[in-house]
Amino acid sequence: MSSGYGNRRGRRGGGGRFGDGEDVWDRCAGPSGGGYQSNPGWESREGQARGGGRGARGGGARGKHPPHLKGREIGLWYAKWGGIKRSEAERKSVRTYVTSYFDGDDPPEGPQKMGKVAEMEPDKKQKQEQEEEKEVKMKAKVEPRERDLEYLFQDLVRKPALDVELKSDFQAKAENPKYLEMLVSERMSPVHYAQRLVSLVQASRVVVISGETGCGKTTQVTQFILDDYIQRGAGSLCRVVCTQPRRISAISVAERVAAERAESVGEGRSCGYQIRLQSRLPRKQGSVLYCTTGIILQWLRSDPCLSSISHLVLDEVHERSLQSDVLLAVVRDLLHSREDLKVVLMSATLNAEKFSKYFDNCPMIHIPGYTYPVEEYLLEDVVEMLRFRPQHQDRRPRFPRSFLQNQWTRPEKEAQEAEYRQSWPCFARSLRDRFSDDTIEALERLDEDDKINLDLIVALIRHIVMNEDDGAILVFLPGWDNISGLNDLLMHAPDPCRVTMPLSDQVFKRPPAGVRKIVIATNIAETSITVDDVVYVIDGGKIKETHFDTQNNISTMAAEWVSLANAKQRKGRAGRVSPGKCYHLYNGLRASLLDNYQLPEIQRTPLEELCLQIKILKLGPIASFLRKTLDPPSEKAIELAITHLKDLNALDRSEELTPLGFHLARLPVEPHIGKMILFGALLACLDPVLTIAASLSFKDPFCIPLGKEKLADHRRKILSKNSKSDHLTIVNAFWGWEDAKRRGYKCEREFCWDNFLSANTLQMLHNMKGQFAEHLWAAGFVRSKDLKDSSANINSGDSQGLSTTAEICVCHHRPVKVYTKADGKVCIHPKSVNAEETQFHYTWLIYHLKMRTSSIFLYDCTEVSPFSLLFFGGDISIQKDQEQETIAVDEWIVFQSPARIAHLVKNLKRELDVLLEEKIRQPRPVDWDDRGSSDCAVISAIIDLITTQESPSEAPWQERSWKAGQHWD
DNA sequence: GAGCACTGC
User: Fold this and answer.
1) Measuring CA to CA, how many Å separate A469 from each of A465, A472, A493, A506?
2) Could you report the per-residue pLDDT of A475-486, keeping only the tens digit for each?
3) Which of A668, A662, A371 has its CA nearest to residue A537?
4) Any idea which nucleotide's C1' is nearest the CA of A601?
5) What is the pLDDT of residues A712-764, one digit of tens each?
6) Which nucleotide comes closest to A302 if you measure CA to C1'?
7) For residue range A473-519, what is the model confidence (pLDDT) as tens digits?
8) Are A652 and A660 contacting, i.e. CB atoms less than 8 angstroms apart?
């Protein structure tokens, strides 16, 4: 048995001495996902609606529907508000309260509400407002994009007048009572840390700062650097940029820093932020900018040396996101050409050394974290304490563990399991001194089942509720099925565990006295949201992870054991407000075998998009750049990505960008989606194609609330308008939303509610569409930035017309034969409108994402006609096969066809290819006004062919065969 | 019959 974990057990965690003056930095400023600030009161504000419009409680909801409602509206009223009323009534009578949070539940408040903004003195404020107004008027004339570029390219030239101004401002601020108040209450930063840190940064080109979440490094380090420059009268030479992994943390940290500096965020101040489609930029010199990592990677395209930045601070590098790993590699190279650039890496303590080594053993400095101590318990402690005995399962014959487990276990995990099984007897013996035989037997039984034992969690929750002090309980589970399972169990548990499952904004509120809040969450609660009154954490021990199986060329998602870093992060969630307790539901042996960290994202993900980025950033040959990363991806994964890009015609044989590749690399989407966007523009069905592209690259706007699955399916089916297409369902939903929005806020809310749509997601999709349109316009593919421009939407049509035109573009997805479940190859995901469909017009579907979870699922698919496949599916060839003419797409989708038609199709397709290639080589919009032009003629002919073909029986072809061996999936 | 989490001038 490996050693070590036994010592961790029960150890006082955190090592913190909160409140111990000198060493305290700032315990509140969680650098990661500072999260949403909770409302101090438990009750919602009156009439305040949340997200999809489930609010309007209080005034209206008093037992009877408002008198003006009629018929169906009355039913709706009871459906919507009845549930809320019921839960309010129940809340008064029960002791325990469960609420849950997954992604997809919109947070109750926007991040903009974070942070306090200190007030300024009146005259200064007035002056500043005038200045701001002047500036806003000026800026209003400049397009946002140009403004950002102007911001990016400004040089860091010393401005003595600015230096003096900044310094005197700083000194004046030091006398401002409001600022001093903030300084005392918020920063409390010990001077010696600031000095040590600043001199270390001055002396070295790269510094690693390690410290746990909550030690305040994110908010403080940037300010130390800036204030040092200002005090030395060199403020104009300092421009700190700090990257964050999440949008929400970039905003909340910037807001917080501004508040600490007694300023507001952005526009000419010392602190601002920039995330996709949203920015409040600080003044050009003498400032700190918080941005997402992706933003810096985009900046590099225009300014490969980051010449306007004096200090680059990379936060949360230990999370090992794809983008942060790439940026690290870029920056390491950049240091050769930018001798004056200072780089600061901020990491959790566990592997700070790794980053130091990567940067030539650069100096490290540790910032102690100050959270409350958290006691940790392992599975054996929990089982012993609760005297828990697993229910007898129906005793199936015991298969070898690897068989019972996920049938696609990865080889590394296989080895770990073998070690676990081998060490078990020894571990069990070592437990005998401290634990009862019953406990050891229970542990063995728990081990037989790979699933998380929810009965155990219920028992543990009961124990905490009945025996422990007040404080919220946070339960980490890997996914939806566990969460809803646990919720069901709690719902049906006898008092005092009777629960209700209310709206998710109550996740963030403190419950009234005598009520216990229980939050069940996925790993979203590790970093992205913060429930700040948590005292007890139950760590289910599993986490869902995606991987990329290069052998079978498929993405996978499965629950895996957590890493030590996850476990530590989960534990930390218990010590934010008081000393806490954390129960890990895995035994000591398992704990000793946990990985330190999850596999870095770069090793778990397909690399196509990254390869294009490497090319457009001119970082050298793809493989040699990737080998320079901290933990390079496998050669096989690199090879696979390059092959795909060549197939897509984005890279040529010598791995250089083709004209198409160049455009794809510039669009902020995956290459497949990018191609769809370009073709959508050229074929004049821009608006719907952009909706689809935005949705595929961000997220689908549909939500499925717990218990409402059937109804949600039904509503989606209606929105699909029998198109047999998930893509067009989203287009219909989006149009419906736009229409509802035009009719007012109430209509919008109602439309979203009725159709299970997230208004926040739709708004984001709307913004992204605008961004895509701007790209297309800048590249010359469309005449106008307006994506509704009629010349770009000649083939968009509505309903009928749309279903075929949008299909054209969707064909840049992968095609697949319609299988039935019995075929066992792939399944249409149950969320798809095609899941239950039995009557297809055609035998082919195209899909965007295929992933292996419990089976291999196609997540979004659209039925396509053979003509669509022939014109947009790939290379076509005509052959004589057994005395019959056939026409084939990429040599594997083969149709039987009269020779005349086959040749007609082939010629037309060739013309289309020439036209598209020419347009991409020299972007310009198709001139639809000149109907006689050859462009128009070719495209119109194809569209006519596709749209007029009403039923398969009228088609001049017959499907001949499908060559299974050549299926490239 | 099923939904870890992020991100992009």
Assistant:
1) 8, 10, 21, 21
2) 999 988 888 888
3) A371
4) B6
5) 999 999 999 888 889 889 999 999 999 999 999 999 999 999 999 999 999 99
6) B9
7) 999 999 888 888 888 888 777 654 444 444 456 677 788 777 888 88
8) no
How remote is the C-alpha of A266 from its chain's centroid?
25
Query: If 0-12 CB within 10 Å is exposed, 13-18 middle and 19+ buried, where does residue A241 land?
Result: buried
A826 touches strand B (CB under 7 A): no
Q: Cα–Cα distance between A150 and A143 in angstroms, integer?
A: 11
- What residues contact residue A1 under an 8 Å CB cut-off, 6+ apart? A423, A426, A427, A430, A589, A592
Measured in residues, chain A has a length of 969
Residue A652 tokens read as 């040529």
Q: Is A368 helix (H, G, I), strand (E, B) or coil?
A: coil
Confidence of residue A840 (pLDDT cuts 50, 70, 90): confident
Q: Which nucleotide is nearest to A295 (CA to C1')?
A: B8
Q: Tokens representing A383?
A: 């089982």
Q: Work out if A11's Cβ lies within 7 angstroms of strand B.
A: no
Residue type present at position A211: G
Residues A938 and A908: beta-carbon distance below 8 Å: yes
The answer to whether A835 and A829 are in contact (CB under 8 A) is yes
Is there contact between A275 and strand B, defined as CB under 7 Å from any strand atom?
A: yes
Residue A581, strand partner residues: A375, A536
What is the nearest nucleotide to A698, using C1' and CA? B7
Flag residues 769-808 of A with CB < 7 Å from strand B.
771
- Three-state DSSP class for A124? helix
A322-336: b or e for each residue (b if 16 or more CB lie within 10 Å)? bbbbbbbbbbbebee
- Return d(Cα A308, Cα A148) in angstroms, integer: 13
Distance of A768 CA from B9 C1′ (whole Å): 13
Q: Would you say the C-beta of A583 is within 7 Å of strand B?
A: no
Q: Is the CB of A854 under 7 A from strand B?
A: yes
- Taking the C1' atom of every nucleotide in all shown strands and the CA of A668, the nearest one is B8
A670 touches strand B (CB under 7 A): yes
Residue partners of A686: CB distance under 8 A and separation at least 6: A680, A773, A776, A782, A787, A789, A792, A793, A796
Residues 589-608 of A with CB under 7 A from strand B: 601
